[in-house]
Amino acid sequence: MLNINKYMLIMIDVELQKELRMRFNPEGSDLRRAQLRMVEMLKFFDSVCKQHKMTYWLDSGTLIGAARHGGFIPWDDDVDICMPIKDLKKFKKLMLNNNLSDEFVLQCHETDFYFLSSPSWCVLRDLKSEYIQNSHLHNVRKFRGLQIDLFGVEENTIEFLHYFCCKYQSKIIDWLLYKNCKHLAYLSYLPFRYCIIPTFRLLSVCSKKKYYRMGYGIPIRSKRYVETIFPISKISFEGYLFNAPSNSDKYLSNIYKNWKQVPEFKKVKTHNVKFKFWSI
Hints:
By secondary structure, the chain is an alpha+beta fold.
């Protein structure tokens, strides 16, 4: 029997929803086309997780969209997923070693040499589209299609070690990439991935807590409390049911205090991207 998220019905006013859609993502617009394509990507990801018994849940703006809008936040242009690090490793292994799709690819250092990010973060990319974005960190990457961010979460990270990894990632590796010092960025990445992070995980092994935090190196430090996540439930997103925390209201409130409130239009922040499509 499906455990339908009882906290999912926090929908905004219908007229406001229509106004938002007309302003940001009307039917036929490039953004709406991109969102519908990402739904197809999410369905693929969900099917693989079901088949191989991997745990995941919608997170961040995607979960807000599901609970507040029944789908994407009208101006959103990506999908956010959390999964325990062991399941992320399992999904990564499946994608790298099996020909699961000829439409989507898993972006990680193994498939994109200059994807020099935390090993706890991978990106499922669409091969039939592209983000057009004025960002050197984005443009240096091999794959730039529509994306689902896959964040590995861990129960035993130590806060000041997590902070150090975030700063190392942003102030050294990303900065060197931004300055187009690719080789120096890569040389800085090697000890980070293969020495610093494994050592920090060993130091953290006895510090298991009642909350998850993004894996070392992911620059998101907010806590995801275990009691609000399990047992995993289902939530409606763009007409389909996907995994969600058992108490999405409390889960989101712990991260974003006023997540139910739609921001004023003039305060809406976007990634300022355009899209290119191939045979979608």
